[in-house]
Design goal:
Elements lengths: L11 H31 L5 H13 L12 H4 L3 H8 L2 E5 L9 E6 L6 H7 L6 H4 L4 E6 L9 H6 L3 E3 L2 H8 L6 E6 L2 H4 L9 E2 L6 H9 L2 E8 L6 E2 L7 H13 L6 E2 L17 E5 L13 H22 L12 E2 L1
Helix pairs in contact: 1-2, 1-4
Subcellular location: Endoplasmic reticulum membrane
Protein name: Acyltransferase
GO molecular function: 2-acylglycerol O-acyltransferase activity; diacylglycerol O-acyltransferase activity
Length: 335
């Protein structure tokens, strides 16, 4: 196989973009296990007190992820995230105002492999979320598993990430006065297994938990579609019914995380590796769907709002697909 190396005369800003995305990929794939190993390793060195003191802090601080986390605005606004934004590049597109007097549940589609668009748009200030939606604070949900990793839990909370269990997701929505937006990658880890370039399968047909949560709190629903999210990585073909897909789904049900066999480019060459391709991601935030508070919705009420949400997401996709290189005959496929 011929290797296509990157030219030596690349400008410094492109090298910085690659470096920032490299640390982000490392953080997503390997930082949590690295932190766990470090925590136990320190116990058997002269620095054992670091792990002991952290364990005490962890015990005291255990419930913080369930109470909105601990965002650090300074870190969210660092210039390094602008380099990540420009690597792809990533763009946040507003289609309607969101009144900060209300709370919102924003459904993010599709999940993609590493949820690059969701992180850049809702965990950093690089794409202008605060300017486009003044008065709103976004909270991106992440698998609770990652909040059990020492040190790593504190790192991800700095970006406004909170666990995806019901209690932590409901906390921002229960605040009176509005101004909170919970962002849910609705398809979750299983949808990552469908994250192939050119695929528009959305795992949504049976996903109603986020709809019920919005009804219980009277939080308005906002569909979000991220064009290009599935284009930044290739993935080994794994059609439903194959042994590979069966194995991946089995492991996902046991571990809680999916294991897509993805690949793209490298750091110093463009032929293979785990770095994402430089392909644009445009995250389009749709119009809000008004939701009245209903603490005990009936099955019919839940189904009706769920269908309306799917219709609005489909309309959002059809309305904007022509702007982002999607064929006019392509439609969302709800799985």
């Amino acid at each position: 196989m011929k290797i296509d190396f990157a030219p030596l005369d690349l400008p410094m800003h492109r090298r910085l973009q690659t470096a920032v995305v490299l640390q982000w990929v490392f953080s997503f794939l390997a930082l949590a296990p690295t932190c766990i190993v470090l925590f136990f390793y320190l116990l058997f060195t002269r620095f054992w007190l670091i792990s002991v003191l952290y364990a005490v802090w962890w015990f005291i601080d255990y419930d913080t992820p369930l109470r909105g986390g601990r965002r650090v605005p300074f870190l969210c606004g660092l210039k390094v995230w602008e380099y990540m934004r420009d690597y792809f590049p990533i763009k946040l597109v507003k289609t309607a105002d969101l009144d900060p007097k209300h709370n919102y549940v924003m459904g993010f589609h599709p999940h993609g492999v590493l949820v690059a668009g969701a992180f850049a748009n809702f965990c950093t200030y690089a794409t202008g979320f605060r300017q486009l939606f003044p008065g709103l604070t976004s909270y991106l949900l992440m698998l609770p598993l990652w909040f059990r990793a020492p040190f790593f839990r504190d790192y991800i909370m700095c970006a406004g990430l909170i666990p995806s269990d019901k209690d932590s997701a409901k906390y921002p929505l229960s605040k009176r006065g509005g101004g909170n937006a919970v962002v849910i990658a609705v398809g979750g880890a299983p949808e990552a297994l469908d994250a192939h370039p050119g695929s528009y399968n959305v795992l949504l047909a049976k996903k109603k938990g986020f709809i019920k949560m919005a009804m219980e709190h009277g939080a308005h629903l906002v569909p979000v579609f991220s064009f290009g999210e599935n284009e930044v990585f290739d993935q080994v073909e794994n059609p439903r019914g194959t042994w590979l897909r069966w194995t991946q789904e089995r492991l996902q049900s046991i571990m809680g995380i999916s294991l897509p066999l993805f690949h793209a480019r490298g750091i110093f060459q463009y032929s293979f590796g785990l770095m994402p391709y430089r392909k644009p991601i445009s995250t389009v935030v749709g119009r809000p769907i008004r939701v009245e508070r209903n603490e005990k919705p009936t099955a019919e009420e839940l189904d009706a709002l769920h269908q309306r949400y799917m219709d609005e997401l489909s309309n959002l996709f059809d309305e904007h697909k022509g702007n982002y290189g999607v064929d006019k005959d392509t439609h969302l496929n709800f799985v």
